[in-house]
Amino acid sequence: MPDHANSLASGSLLLKGGRVVDPKHRRDGIFDVKIEDGLISQIDKGLPCDDETVIEVPSSVVVCPGLVDIHVHLREPGQEHKETVATGVQAAVAGGFVGVACMPNTEPVNDHSGVTELILRRAEEAGLSQVYPIGAVSIGSKGEHLTEFGELHRAGCVAVSDDGHPVADSLLMRRALEYASMFNMPVINHCEDPSLKGDGSANEGYKASVLGLRGIPGAAESIMVERDVSLSELTGGHVHVAHMSSRGSLRAVRSGKDRDVSVTCEVTPHHFVLTDESLSYDTNLKMNPPLREIADRDAMIQGLVDGSIDVIATDHAPHHADEKAVEFDSAPFGIVGLETAVPLVLDRLLHTGTLSLSRIIELLAVNPARVLGLEAGGLQVGKPADITFLAPESTVEVSAAAFRSKGRNTPFDGWRLQGAVAGTMVRGRMVYKASGVTGAEALGEVAAGQ
Amino acid sequence: MNEQGDSISSIDANVKRPKLRSRHLLSISDLSLEEILLILETARAMKEVGTRPIKKVPTLRGKTVVNLFFEPSTRTRASFEIAEKRLSADALNIAAMTSSLLKGETLADTARNIEAMAPDMIVVRHGASGACHMLADISNSRIINAGDGMHEHPTQALLDALTIREHKPSIKGKKVAIIGDLLHSRVLRSNVLLLNALGAEVWVSGPATLMPRGIDRFGVTATTSVDAAVSEADVVMMLRIQTERMRGHFFPSAREYFRLFGLTRDRLRLAKADAIVLHPGPLNRGVEISSEVADGPGSVILEQVSNGVAVRMAILYLLAGSEGEADHA
Q1: Residue A2's pLDDT is what?
Q2: Which residue of A161, A170, A245, B197 sits 20 to 30 Å from the alpha carbon of B226, by its own alpha carbon?
Q3: How far apart are CA B311 and CA B304, in angstroms?
């Protein structure tokens, strides 16, 4: 796959004595990691120190393969008031992500290699995390004509999706799956039947009824997941279900997986942390899919435990404060997620005893890379040193005002969560180091911007 | 039920001013049971003002009340305006059609501009649920919800309760059937909260397509059988059905709706002999209610309208009563 690499760091570096968790290579223990010219050159116990820079990794810090978020909105081109590629990747590395896959709903839509190339150029200029563009399935994401998948792939797209605009036409979806399979690209679908969604703005349930908000039933999602599983079975094409939220969808995915259908899926932190019980007129609680019922939230957690859910992705959706400061009905859907994902995952899944650290890294690094066919997701000799340093025991308080992202639209502002990102390394270069996180100070200096 | 002479004189003399805990009236859930009863008692006193040759008391003299209506309304807007004038407040009407809303100003900015002119109270009607909450968050004035989207219409529920109590002195244990478009009705939501607080036995009925999800958690008995809901009812409250709803496939025709859910004289015979019939208006005769019922002996529909003025006077008066705190809030 194309790696739109930021240049490799030069010189050599030894990460000494940290707990390395690398589920792709079944490694979990105290190891030293040696990095030469931005590539991992050795992973072993008790590596000798030569002349290189040595970082004594504190015992409180976990060294793991760099996290990859396969569902973000970077808003550039066209909506730079919400986010730019540059601010988006700053938020990414601050959230522990060495790579992000960005959805094509920009202006213009990323339905043409020219847009893809622009995004990649901006990413290269920013020089922080990798950016993996996702091309549109249909021209203008209008659901009518296929885009040139071959051209988009050549330009660097890793998947196709009309995210935000479900591929409602079943024939178009079928053809997309067949055609994309030639390029080993998954078709990522925002599964939602448009007529069932109607003008709904919250989960159809008790809370929406009390607040007088129009509902979106869980069936609006699951009905299209069922269809897409059937189409994947028919065509052999890889369908990836974006931000799954309803238990009916999970049942459909499970049933597909039981039949070896090529279906994968992701869930966002907000869908396994929040439910519609916390709904109010706060527009930072308006996202699509909406916060579902307790039974749905519990099903998502169960899916993370039993392996039916492959990936945790954020659906990072920055909006300008003005756009959210309107009536609930009129507000745009979406919340930012890059800088809250790791604390939410560690607090709600690790410290509750729900998932092991190793399984969490599968969900945040190994599987995201696998779904998009990327080389990333593991610590491997000869490969770029893309590393996330976690401080699972450190408690942080979410501060929207301190986000690197331009978006402040989060329902988690002020939450105290146990589990933090201590630092992020891309291509052997420290690109982010947290302040106020125990152990982070030992991780060396953040490299000067390019 | 004793008419309290001294409460009337207190309105005139502006001496003893009871007040509400909440600065705003956004939802019936803002009110305690005691406050609900206080509003209803105060409204009874306010009614007397409307029987005087000079229907005006100086209670809110020097106060400015803005009626900010983003949706068309005849009855509610007129009712508030008359209430304000009877209390000697300076009332200003702003209708969405004539405001800068058409120029693309946000609700928040419209509110801030009105706020800058320092009104004491803003009566708001808006098509979006929660719009009044938003105004309450950014405004120093007291906000009275005159209907927000599909959420609530608290003054309607209070005037309904006043009307019911005039006929059924104790609402506790009385069977109240609310029938119609439950899904889109803000009148329903406010009434369920209020009637439950007063201890009524609340039944709701309407087509399955217009039944809100989670209605089982509203503390009501829900049924698609209108006959079951009306049977032995003390109070039948009809909700307006909007024929536009046919576009959302909620029901096939006005004719079928009337046949299955409309309140006819035959259907009303299932209720108690002294049952009363309410409707928030405007009426769709022959759709949700027959003319013979709307104009018949049990109908208290016009009493509701009269009581609307008294209830709104009571709310304006009681909300103004908490001004000391508000200025420091």
Answers
A1: 39
A2: B197
A3: 10
Interface contact A166, partner B, CB < 8 A: no
Whether residues B195 and B248 share a domain: the answer is yes
* Cα separation, B89 vs B133, whole angstroms: 24
Q: Chain B partners of A215 at a C-beta cutoff of 8 Å? A: 213
Question: Is residue B160 domain-shared with residue B185, that is, in the same domain?
Answer: yes
User: Which stretch of DSSP H or E encloses residue A304?
Assistant: helix A294-306
- Which residues of chain A lie closer than 8 angstroms to B129, CB-CB? 211-213, 281, 328-329
- Could you report the per-residue pLDDT of A182-215, keeping only the tens digit for each? 999 999 999 999 999 999 999 999 999 999 999 9
Contacts of B196 in chain A (CB under 8 A): none
Same domain membership, residue B301 and residue B163: yes
Closest-CA residue to B26 (of B140, B131, B162, B161): B131
Inspect the interface and report whether the beta carbons of B151 and A212 lie closer than 8 Å: yes
Distance of CA B71 to the CA centre of its chain: 15
Q: How far apart are CA B207 and CA B261, in angstroms?
A: 8
CA-to-CA distance for A238 and A250, rounded, in angstroms?
A: 17
| Cα B163 from Cα B266, distance rounded (Å) | 24
Minimal Cα distance from B130: which residue of A?
Answer: A281
Count of all residues that appear for chain A in the document:
450
DSSP A384: B
Closest alpha carbon within chain B to A203: B213
pLDDT tens, residue by residue, B192-244: 999 999 999 999 999 999 999 999 999 999 999 999 999 999 999 999 997 76
Are B54 and B116 within one domain?
A: yes
Query: Does residue B59 share a domain with residue B34?
Result: yes
Q: Is B329 domain-assigned?
A: no
A315 is catalytic: yes
* Residues of B involved in catalysis: 75-76, 103, 125, 153
Q: How many domains does chain B have?
A: 2
Neighbours of B198 (CB within 10 A): 21
- Work out the burial of residue A248: count CB atoms within 10 Å of its CB; fewer than 13 is exposed, 13-18 middle, 19 or more buried: buried
Q: Which residues contact B98 (CB under 8 A, 6 or more apart)?
A: none
Beta carbons of A136 and A109 less than 8 angstroms apart: yes
Domains and their CATH numbers in chain A:
12-63+382-443 (2.30.40.10), 66-372 (3.20.20.140)
Helix (H, G, I), strand (E, B) or coil at A104: coil
